[in-house]
Design goal:
Layout: E1 5-6, E2 9-13, E3 17-22, E4 31-32, E5 54-55, E6 61-62, E7 71-76, E8 80-85, E9 93-99, H1 109-131, E10 139-140, E11 146-152, E12 159-165, E13 171-180, E14 183-191, E15 198-205, E16 215-216, E17 228-229, E18 238-239, E19 246-253, E20 255-257, E21 263-269, E22 272-279, E23 289-290, E24 293-297, E25 301-306, E26 316-317, H2 330-333, E27 340-342, E28 348-349, E29 358-363, E30 367-372, E31 382-388, E32 394-398, E33 401-404, E34 423-427, E35 433-437, E36 446-447, E37 450-452, E38 459-460, H3 467-481
Parallel strand pairs: 1-37, 2-9, 5-7, 8-16, 11-25, 17-20, 24-31, 27-29
Antiparallel strand pairs: 3-7, 3-37, 4-6, 8-9, 10-11, 11-23, 12-13, 13-14, 14-19, 15-18, 15-21, 21-22, 25-29, 26-28, 30-31, 32-33, 34-35, 36-38
């Protein structure tokens, strides 16, 4: 899914109105904090509309929680650069540039349509490229067991190169890379500097092209996840070498994710700004467990690694026949069973996890177990763990009954857990009660984009794993051990 406003930047005149429309199954907000403290999206009042529909660049203005098909409009009365975000998705930012009334527009609405489509396609491609980088081979455990890893909600790898240019002939780039949760490395490589001169660099809110205009920044959009998008940060001064070059690296702590747009790098000398460039990040998130189907042996451990920098997820096992708790209910927040044994019964839940957090279970009983993300189960975020008997051989799988070639034939979870198909009744997060019957886990294509004025949409296929794949894996694994 794409976590973005498309187009990322729109330029209007004072007195103009911008309309946002949600084109996804995932809810969003359009929130201008105007430098005010962040709102907690887990508080009901934060998700209600705030401030009306005429904005002068001060105070909090927010659409409230918007579902698919809903729109929000805001009229801008004062020139400036306004950075806004989504309260519930860290790093999901956009920019509205307001020119003085009567200024010529840089693009028509039709051209913004084309820009939005190109941005979505680029972000989608970057997301798929990032997905291929997620890999964690199983590691050996005690007594011949293994530990397996599942990534929860993988998102775009946080690594962005920002071209830096200036009118004085200074040029180069800045590389921003996440090296650990909430820790970024920033490397500046510059040429054309004055040899021996001292320079400063900083991140700023807004756009480099419009750096001369008043910028009103929303620094904490999505900050409820114990972190923020890249705030305004001043780096230590550095000195150009004898050839007018500089290559310096800084480490920044406490930053959760890069913003989609609305930050720029500024390099300054004694005479003012010498170079700069905008930070633009493809903010994507896959509503999936990766891999979504995993085959292990009794006694093995599974560790779920929260990989999303822009969302929260849960890992939740619900006993057959138990309704899936509504996210927001006390039970959905309860952490239950972490780092314990799981035998296919009871309620096990990670609670909401942010990037860098883990949840782990050791599976003691053969069977096929289905789990969900309580927040995104309606979007098909469902996984399966196939647990095979250890040190036993299997001749065949007939009618979902495992026939073991031991002196005493037994069945493994015959009536319930040898099938991936389970029916759950769930009250979805925002009030609509529905029945989700997973007759197959080939997940439906969904869209995840929010557009401005123009209804540009995009889609991303979620991770898929079906019953057939689970059964094939079951047979193949046992035949290999025969």
């Amino acid at each position: 899914m794409l976590m973005g406003f498309y187009p990322n930047v729109i330029v209007v005149d004072a007195g103009d109105t911008v309309i946002w429309t949600v084109n996804s199954m995932e809810p969003h907000t359009v929130t201008f904090l105007s430098g005010e403290p962040n709102l907690n999206p887990f508080e009901e009042r934060s998700l209600a509309p705030i401030g009306g529909n005429v904005y002068n660049g001060t105070g909090i203005y927010s659409s409230g929680l918007m579902m698919q098909g809903m729109s929000y409009n805001l009229t801008f009365t004062q020139p400036g650069v306004y950075v806004y975000g989504c309260l519930i998705h860290a790093g999901m930012t956009g920019v509205v540039v307001v020119q003085p009334r009567g200024s010529p527009y840089p693009y028509t609405q039709a051209q913004y349509d084309q820009i939005a489509a190109a941005e979505e396609a680029n972000d989608l491609a970057n997301g798929y490229t990032s997905l291929g980088t997620y890999s964690a081979p199983a590691s050996p455990g005690p007594n011949g067991t293994s530990t397996y890893y599942v990534f929860v909600g993988p998102s775009t790898v946080e690594d962005v190169t920002v071209p830096l240019n200036g009118s004085s002939g200074v040029k180069g780039y800045a590389d921003l890379s996440m090296i650990a949760p909430f820790t970024f490395r920033v490397t500046l490589v510059l040429s054309g500097l004055t040899p021996g001169a001292s320079y400063n660099a900083a991140t700023r809110g807004g756009l480099f092209e419009y750096s001369s205009m008043r910028a009103v920044y929303t620094p904490y959009a999505g900050g409820y996840q114990s972190g923020t998008v890249v705030p305004t940060i001043s780096f230590p001064a550095f000195t150009a070498d004898s050839s007018g070059r500089a290559n310096v690296t800084f480490v920044v702590h406490g930053v959760q994710t890069l913003p989609s747009v609305g930050e720029y790098i500024q390099v300054s000398g004694s005479g003012g700004t010498v170079a700069g460039g905008d930070v633009v990040f493809s903010n994507t998130g896959f509503m999936t467990f990766y891999p979504s189907s995993l085959t292990i042996y009794a006694g093995d451990k599974v560790v779920w690694l929260e990989a999303s920098t822009n969302d929260v997820h849960t890992v939740t096992f619900v006993s057959p026949g138990m309704p899936i708790p509504e996210f927001g209910a006390p039970l959905s927040f309860a952490v239950m069973g972490n780092n314990t044994d799981y035998n296919g019964t009871g309620y096990y839940n990670s609670g909401p996890m942010i990037v860098g957090q883990n949840y782990e279970l050791t599976f003691t009983k053969p069977g096929v177990y289905t789990y969900v993300c309580l927040i995104h189960d309606s979007l098909g975020m469902i996984g399966h763990i196939v647990v095979l008997p250890r040190a036993q051989e299997v001749r065949s799988v007939i009618n979902n009954t495992v026939q073991q070639t031991t002196t005493e034939q037994t069945t493994v979870q015959q009536s319930t857990t040898t099938t991936v198909v389970q029916q759950y009744t769930t009250t979805q997060q925002y009030g609509t009660t529905t029945t989700v019957q997973q007759s197959t886990t080939v997940q439906q294509v969904t869209t995840q984009a929010l557009t401005m004025q123009v209804q540009g949409t995009t889609a991303i296929a979620l991770g898929a794993a079906g019953l057939i794949l689970a059964v094939v894996a079951l047979i193949a694994a046992f035949l290999m051990r025969k």
